[in-house]
Amino acid sequence: MIDPDMIDAEIPHLRRYARALVREREAADDLVQDTLERAWRKRVQWRPTGRLRSWLFRMLYRLYLDRRPQLQRAHRNLIALDDVRPPAAAGMDTDAALHCREVMAAIDALPEKQRAILLLVALEQPSYREGARALGLRVGTFRSRLSRAREQLNERLVSAAEPTPTREDANG
What we know:
By secondary structure, the protein is mainly α. It is built from 8 helices and no strands. The protein has one domain: Butyryl-CoA Dehydrogenase, subunit A, domain 3 (Up-down Bundle). One of its GO terms (molecular function) is DNA binding.
């Protein structure tokens, strides 16, 4: 049986992942609230053989997928990166903050399935098995999507870092 304190301990993790996925504070909070309500209704279905966090993340992710069309239409009040990143990154300098924004823009440009995996790994650092369980995937599929996401992210960041040729460069 799930103790309410066990669920309470997972709320910060759920909120951080929901805000990274949705990028709109109220919609993310609604997503977490609905996840918590669903988890409480289905608490007898949870098996202590797995981690509670993975079970909750799977619910959150499935709710997110169900609501994605509405969420994309309401994607107007993007939350600040400061609300998504872990507290340890709060004291970063301006260059680092700019780089983080560039990385977030590159992550946002990824296909949705890759973006969801990359955000989960970046924010929660689950094992491959836990991450796959949280998103309802096979481990091989999870690893493959994560690998492709990392490759595409790297390509986008390298392309963004390359200087654009100026007229003087062309005239040489």
